[in-house]
Specification:
Length: 113
Amino acid sequence: MTFVYTVNRQGRTVSVTAGGEMDVAAGGPFGSMLCRLAESEPTERIEVDLGALRFMDSTGVAALNRAYRTTGRHGCVLVVIRATGVVLRVLELTGALTHLSPRAEAGTDQPSA
């Protein structure tokens, strides 16, 4: 399984684009990288674009949840955008989308990806 990601920083906003398959081998390191983004430099927002991700297991969900908690402690907002297919379904089934979606950030009760 192949997993790739890119990171682009513009000021205090970071865009992370993930693609491929996020499994047990990739989830932990990816989550740690997201945490470091908020810890290393002043960051207000991290957007994680999952539009090119074809697969994600519970390890990926755990990594995103851990990063969400860690970034929040640093005053940073982490949101997931463009999740589709099986990745969107996994986020919905686990309830993670309720706090990781941009609508959760805005305070609305309808999650979207």
